[in-house]
């Protein structure tokens, strides 16, 4: 980190109830895991990433501070989105962050955002089927989605290969950097019907 902008933002996020009440250091460690999932498989930094359901700002703010590339933060709650907009204007903030306050099912219909991101991240966006369906359309072919996973490694059936393939995705498998992460790779374009209309991915998950 080049300055104290990120710790100040996360302390304020915690104070406003967008992060848990505990110390912020574990959040840094968990966000670093997202960065390493990218950096250990790709020689170059991403040119752009999108963070699904940014909430209190992680891992997106950490990755923006680390990489200084284009970053798009998404959240459907106005209060959280406005906080992120505010934080991106604080002294020391990186210049490449944008906040979109809307449901992801809507954002994914924006032609300027379809298949333009090297990386999509999801910390606690939703179950596997919801995360995959809502995030796939944003990824370039060859891009990756990194999703935070539960600590228990015993459930090997969280990501349905056939249903992922219908979205243009392949699960590479779980990676551990302290916490667990799933890495999904986009192998071909996502059909235009995905994601389905607002609320449908959660009400009628694909798997």
Written account of the structure:
The protein is globular and about 45 Å long. The chain contains eight helices and seven strands. The protein is of the alpha/beta class and 207 residues long. The chain has a seven-stranded mixed beta sheet with strand order 3-2-1-4-5-7-6, sandwiched between helices. It has a single domain (5-203), classed as Rossmann fold (3-Layer(aba) Sandwich), CATH 3.40.50. Strand 6 and strand 7 form a beta hairpin. Helix 2 packs across helix 3 (60-67).
Layout of SSEs?
Layout: H1 5-15, H2 25-39, E1 48-52, H3 60-67, E2 70-75, H4 78-87, E3 97-101, H5 104-107, E4 117-122, H6 128-136, E5 139-149, H7 161-166, E6 169-177, E7 179-186, H8 200-203
Parallel strand pairs: 1-2, 1-4, 2-3, 4-5
Antiparallel strand pairs: 5-7, 6-7
Helix pairs in contact: 2-3
Q: What tags apply to this protein structure?
A:
globular; Rossmann fold; single chain; 24% strand; alpha/beta; 207 residues
CATH structural fold name: Rossmann fold
CATH superfamily label? Vaccinia Virus protein VP39
Shape: globular
Question: Major sheet, described briefly?
Answer: 7 strands, mixed
State the name of the first-level CATH class. Answer: Alpha Beta
Beta-strand content: 15-25%
Distance between the termini: 39 Å
How many β-strand runs?
7
């Amino acid at each position: 980190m080049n300055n104290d902008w990120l710790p100040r933002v996360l302390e304020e996020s915690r104070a406003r109830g967008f992060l848990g009440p505990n110390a912020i250091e574990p959040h840094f460690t968990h966000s670093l895991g997202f960065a390493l999932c990218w950096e250990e498989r790709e020689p170059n930094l991403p040119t752009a990433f999108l963070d699904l359901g940014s909430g209190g700002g992680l891992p997106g703010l950490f990755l923006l501070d680390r990489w200084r590339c284009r970053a798009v933060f998404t959240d459907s709650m106005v209060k959280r989105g406005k906080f992120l907009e505010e934080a991106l204007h604080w002294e020391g903030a990186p210049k490449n962050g944008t906040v979109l306050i809307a449901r992801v099912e809507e954002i994914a219909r924006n032609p300027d955002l379809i298949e333009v991101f090297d990386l999509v991240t999801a910390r606690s966006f939703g179950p596997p089927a919801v995360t995959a369906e809502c995030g796939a359309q944003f990824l370039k072919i060859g891009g990756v989605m990194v999703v935070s996973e539960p600590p228990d490694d015993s459930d090997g059936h969280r990501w349905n290969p056939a249903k992922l393939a219908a979205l243009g995705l392949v699960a590479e498998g779980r990676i551990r950097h302290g916490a667990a992460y799933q890495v999904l790779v986009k192998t071909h374009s996502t059909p235009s019907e995905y994601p389905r209309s607002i609320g449908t991915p959660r009400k009628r998950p694909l798997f």
